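Bench log, entry 3. Co-assembly request; chain sequences pasted below exactly as received.
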Amino acid sequence: MASPQRTLFETQPEPWEVDDQSIERVASVVLSAGPAEEFDYLVPEPLYEKLELGRRVRVPLGRSNRLVVGYCVRLEDRAVGPRRLKPVREVLDQRSLLSPAMLRLTRWIAEHYLCDWAAVLDAVVPAGVRGGAGTRMATLLSVDPEAAGRLGELKLSQRQVEIFKILAAAKEPLTPADLARLARCTTGPITALRRKGLIRARTARLALRRAEETVPVREKHLVLNADQEAALKTVLAALNSGRQQTILIHGVTGSGKTEVYMQAIREVLQFGRQAIVLVPEISLTPQTVERFRGRFGAVAVLHSHLSDAERHWHWQRIAEGTVSVVVGARSAVFAPTPHLGLMVLDEEHESSFKQETAPRYHARDVALARSVAEGIPLVLGSATPSLESWHRAQTGQYTLVSMPRRVLDRPLPRVGTIDLRSEKASGSLSGGAISRQMRVAIGEALGGGQVILLLNRRGFSTHIQCPACGHVLQCPHCDIALTHHRKEEIALCHYCDYEVPAPRACPKCEFAGIRYSGLGTQRLEAEVRARFPNVVCLRMDTDTMQAHGSHERALSAFRSGKVQILLGTQMIAKGLDFPNVTLVGVINADTALHLPDFRAAERTFHLVTQVAGRTGRGPKGGRVLVQTFSPEHPAIQAAVRHDYAAFAAGELPIRQMLRYPPFASMIRLVVRGSSEAVTSEFSKQVAQRIDAAVRAAPVDARVLGPAPCPFARLKGKYRFQIQLQSGDGDQLRAAVRQATGDLEPPENVQWIADVDPVEML
Ligand code: ADP
Ligand code: ZN
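Structure output for the full assembly:
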């Protein structure tokens, strides 16, 4: 847990105001792997030039003076104190890895998300950058300028003179290998010249050469329609105001939001500043990237599949300002742009913007904090904004811009529901998942168009149950039913990947008629293939999309028309643009509706609306059919009518009544351990401490639990949760910090604090 830190930039007496002898330069250092406090070290004079804020240093720690690495987070000249400080041993970086503004941002993250400052620093500066990935030490040669003047007088062979002249003419220092290549010689004569002192050598760190990217075809900006003009005007006004402002663009899918972002970025670049565009990892397709590169040429693309060397290369170009547009997933919010002018976060409702490992930050909230710190506008865009952002727009904290129409007057698709209760009763499903009505619609759509089918469950059968004894095949490590995967004939745990051969008989009572029931994408695929044998169908889920690049290959096969039916999990619902899709079928809209999560209705609304947005993008129009057991549910009703405002108006009072976000802050503590009794006992202790801290503060807060998590056991660990809600997030954090400051969990028990949690299971 972070210790209370001092402000970074207290005013200090200028050095000349104090007698030299009594002044020392002190660096405050946050250690990469060590105690969570800051430590002060003396900066020896030879290091004055080399040490700046945001660089890493090697310092001695503890009695043994073992050398450890840390970040310099504060530098000051101050009167020599009574305590003798240990000196900084070495400065590791030749340039600052973090600007003062980024240092302040990382400290804010540590405080807001209740985690160690060092962990945040290590997350913000990529490992590839810290390790100098993709660079190497090299010898660089240049001519001795004095020798160049008297080349005629020197007794050199013809070969040596040639080499000397080539090196003298080179624009920059050359490595011995490069020089040998240019002069078509061996390194022998080069070494001879070095020995004679006519060529100088020094060692330096060199970036590996990277193949230049192909130059994209440049595209012109489009002529905006009236809604786009209005949205752009609002963003430009914010840019020109020179103040922070958050603009929420609520625009239906296909309303042209991305075009607005790009034209705002053009403006930013004209002022010589940089822009960061954050999109969910899954939307970071070559299509998206090409759109930005087509407009802006050099674009740094940051995603999780980059190698360390590639990441380092991009990071360097961003930091030097040679690339002005950054497009990336969650962690691109930390891109080291020195002249940031605008941040855009598209699909702002997406839960993947939250990191589920420490530091558990939400890129949307970090983007907001960064835009405030840098005094620049933040643009959030979505067809289905998070209720958090919507509420802030409603209460005037954000500026709301609406883009309710699709570009070129393309209509929004008609959405209809199919009531699975009556379909089941009438036998129209005939044992399958696709109702008669859906079947007819697919048949119609295939006469010239393409079809997308969404089912948010992988596998073939979602559970395996014995009809005789009721036994359900469960993962021995997780509190979760195993899913049948028919291709491999295995039963698989979707959490820990545990697998066993699919049983022929009940493992408990040995009854031979064990049943495979519940519907997954594999079974849906089999059903589609059986019903439409002459149609090419492709399944897209994490099982089929494991190979690198398979995602892109699948999408391009669909785009080209080689595939007529694309079916899969929510992977297919995101940000894709297929003009020829005329039918989207949601096989079961209820998969997320009944989860024990306060955002269940919101998730369902998002999913149906987003997948519906995949159709009707071309001139052929399109329709959506939603199969559901609860067609009257408000979330499904609102999605059917494309009515976000109605959904929000129905859902927000419920949130308010139950004191859920956006009306309160929430912290979820999860305790896990291998012994159920010990873990449970410890979680009770934690809850008691927090109760006491909340009472002593006093904070108006709700403390729920401890209770077993909805997934009470995962990967062999028992899990308990404590849920905290309060109108005052800062006070709630303070109470947790105070209650857990000296918390010592028993052996084999861990606990985490998840601030503003997204994952509730
Ligand atoms: P969104 O981001 O809201 O889903 P996009 O910006 O991707 O929408 O626009 C959807 C499609 O409409 C894209 O193919 C885009 O090129 C096109 N488009 C956007 N704005 C215009 C415009 N003003 N005129 C013509 N086509 C446009
Ligand atoms: Zn498992």
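Residues 475, 477-478, 480, 493, 495-496, 498 surround zinc ion (ligand 2) (CB under 6 Å). The two ends are 24 Å apart (CA to CA).
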